[in-house]
Design a protein that fits this description.
The chain has 152 residues and is α/β, with parallel strands linked by helices. The protein has helices at residues 24-27, 32-46, 58-68, 88-96, 135-151; strands at 6-12, 48-54, 75-79, 101-105, 127-130. The protein is 37% helix and 18% strand. The longest helix is centred in the C-terminal third of the chain and has 17 residues, at 135-151.
């Protein structure tokens, strides 16, 4: 467990604002707002502050990754969503980031279309959790806190 000064940034990529409404058979029925509330609660239990950010814009996501360290965040949990298969720019931002980054996907991307299985961003992250529904986010937050605890 780290002290209460730890901060974790959670970045939700494109279309995640539609979570709970978009393709519920694939992504479930839990809203993004509910996920963010649960992440904040879990963060308090784990002794970290959690701040969430969602953008449908590649540039917005890159800006948040680049600002995370200077803004005092200790780790990033990111769901690049559709950009995970195509954004070299987001991968480069993750690679340049000195914070531990964990990639998350709600669905099991390896059971989906072949084009989704080619992950561009995941290789720049410390780890990836996918296929466990919104629990993937909660497990990623736990993993980030564990990583931070090991580094202190």
């Amino acid at each position: 467990m780290i002290d209460d000064t730890g901060r974790v940034l959670v970045i939700h990529g494109p279309n995640m604002n539609l979570l709970g409404r978009r393709e519920p058979e694939t992504y479930g029925t839990t809203s993004l707002e509910a996920v963010d509330r649960q992440l904040s609660q879990l963060g308090r239990e784990l002794g970290v502050e959690v701040k969430a950010f969602q953008s449908n814009s590649e540039g917005g996501i890159i800006d948040r990754i680049q600002a995370a360290g200077p803004e005092g965040f200790s780790a990033i949990v990111i769901n690049p969503a559709g950009y995970s298969n195509s954004s070299i720019a987001i991968r480069d931002a993750i690679s340049a980031c000195t914070l531990p980054v964990i990639e998350v996907h709600v669905s099991n991307i390896f059971r989906r279309e072949a084009f989704r299985q080619k992950m561009v961003t995941a290789g720049a992250c410390r780890g990836m959790i996918c296929g466990l529904g919104v629990d993937s986010y909660y497990l990623a937050l736990r993993a980030a806190v564990a990583m931070l605890s090991q580094e202190t």
